[in-house]
Design brief:
By secondary structure, the chain is α+β, with helices and mostly antiparallel strands. Helix content is 61%, strand content 7%. It has 17 helices and four strands. A hairpin with a 2-residue loop joins strand 2 and strand 3 (92-99). Helix 6 (219-241) runs antiparallel to helix 7 and helix 13 crosses helix 14. This is Probable 2-(5''-triphosphoribosyl)-3'-dephosphocoenzyme-A synthase. It catalyses: 3'-dephospho-CoA + ATP = 2'-(5''-triphospho-alpha-D-ribosyl)-3'-dephospho-CoA + adenine; apo-[citrate lyase ACP] + 2'-(5''-triphospho-alpha-D-ribosyl)-3'-dephospho-CoA = holo-[citrate lyase ACP] + diphosphate.
Length: 463
């Protein structure tokens, strides 16, 4: 679920020297032809390919990823591409773009892309002005690009051949592995959302048995919503990876928020306007960003570290609590209920203190994962101050629902016997439906628990 896919082959046939030289000459000729057409600036893109192998599935995938990211960045910045040429050569693959943008305005954008993207260190993107002169990093007050292996100036290491080909390729594999792990996060989080929706029975929620108190929602709708969110959660993770060289702070949340808004619209498009996962999107988007940052740093964080990062990133949300005319703001002012923002501010303490221990205890006792998740949900219902419940039935309903959950937990059979727990949850589900009470906030925390338990198991890290 979490593990990154296998590497594409790095090996390939060595390109003869004449092919490498021919590729260089063809690239230069193509650059001059595009500049002669009056381009304001020219983007010349290729990938780092130390050694004699200039084409391989590994290098080609890095090229295709960079090509897509570069063109996406230009599109998002509303920079027109007036001409494009792709040089698909044995001696090396290149992309040339004639851009309708001044070179001195384009160069910082490209350097930012190289700096922020996990594969950026493997890309070679030059910006050439309309006068034919390439712009250097030093012209923008930046040091030369660092070596993949040691961090010293890359050109100096290349001239002195300080590092072996094996060292360089190992470093390239490391960048690629981290990138693929980050990209895999969107799919793993989407799968956790589907698993939460499909877990049955669940009081006050849509499941395989019924729609509960949600006549406008169905299980297929939840699946469609989860699938629609996957690419955006990946983008949240990639956005977070761009902050690898700085501590987690509120700037990360500001960077992720536009992606979250796009994801919300994709969710609504997938469901016909029904809000299936807005709370879960908020939680998983932040988690994806902080974990993307950690992976880009080459780290395998446990939950305690991730929870701390989430608190740091969300610190500014404290000022937003109680502001505005939303139901959540009113509940905070009247009852001190933090809702989704409060959970994020705490680093999802309810997962740490309630859901995760409950899951581990029940799984250790029975070896049944679904049973352990149902037990964790019951614990959440007993302890989570769910604003969804308050919105449907008032603060009194929250007290009644929590008391009902505690009453069920008092029966020792529900802990050790999956059938007893399922029967109790089905009765509880009918109780919630009869009172039109939705437990959507607990569902979001359960989805986090589903993902987290798999992450901790597959990576072998501890919380």
């Amino acid at each position: 679920m979490y593990s990154a896919p296998d590497f594409p082959p790095l090996i390939g046939s060595e390109a003869p020297l004449e092919s490498v030289l021919a590729a260089r000459d063809l690239r230069y000729a193509a650059q001059q032809a595009l500049l002669a057409g009056g381009a304001a600036s020219l983007v010349s893109f290729s990938v780092l390919a130390p050694g004699g192998v200039k084409r391989s599935p590994f290098l080609d995938e890095i090229f295709q990823t960079g090509r897509a990211c570069l063109k996406q960045m230009l599109t998002e910045r509303h920079i027109a591409i007036n001409a494009e040429q792709h040089l698909d050569l044995k001696g090396g693959e290149s992309l040339l773009l004639a851009a309708d943008c001044a070179a001195d305005a384009l160069k910082p954008l490209v350097m930012e892309l190289e700096h922020r993207h996990p594969l950026g260190r493997l890309w070679d993107i030059d910006i050439i002005g309309g006068d034919g002169k390439p712009l250097s990093r030093s012209g923008f007050g930046l040091p030369p690009r660092a070596c993949l292996c040691c961090g010293e100036p890359a050109k100096a290491c290349a001239r002195s051949r300080r590092h072996s080909l094996d060292e360089l390729q190992t470093a390239m594999r490391g960048h690629y592995r981290r990138y693929r792990e980050i990209v895999a996060l969107g799919g793993s989080m989407s799968a956790a959302l589907c698993a939460e929706a499909e877990l049955t029975p669940k009081p006050g929620l849509v499941d395989a048995d019924n729609q509960g108190p949600h006549p406008d929602m169905t299980l297929p709708m939840f699946r469609a919503s989860a699938h629609a969110l996957a690419p955006f959660l990946t983008r949240c993770a990639l956005t977070g990876s761009g902050f690898a060289q700085q501590p987690p702070d509120e700037a990360m949340l500001a960077a992720v928020r536009p992606v979250g808004l796009q994801a919300e619209q994709a969710m609504l498009n997938a469901t016909g306007g029904v809000n299936t996962h807005k709370g879960a999107l908020f939680a998983f988007g932040i988690l994806a960003a902080v974990l993307g940052r950690r992976i880009a740093r080459g780290e395998r964080p446990g939950w305690a570290a991730l929870s701390g990062d989430i608190q740091a990133v969300c610190a500014g949300l404290r000022q937003e609590q109680g502001q505005g005319d939303t139901a959540g703001a009113r509940f905070y002012r009247e009852y001190g209920l933090g809702g989704a923002r409060g959970e994020a501010l705490s680093g999802f303490a309810t997962v740490t203190d309630v859901a995760l221990p409950a899951y581990r205890q029940a799984f250790a006792a029975t070896g049944n994962r679904d049973h352990a998740l149902r037990y964790a949900l019951l614990k959440l219902l007993a302890h989570n101050r769910d604003t969804n419940v308050v919105k449907r039935g008032g603060i009194e309903a929250l007290g009644l629902l929590q008391a009902k959950a505690h009453e069920i937990l008092a029966d020792a059979q529900v802990f050790r016997r999956p059938q007893a727990l399922c029967a109790a949850l089905k009765r509880f589900d009918g109780w919630c439906t009869a009172r039109n009470l939705s437990t959507g906030g607990s569902a979001d925390l359960l989805a986090l628990t589903i993902w987290l338990t798999l992450y901790l198991n597959e990576t072998g890290v501890t919380s």
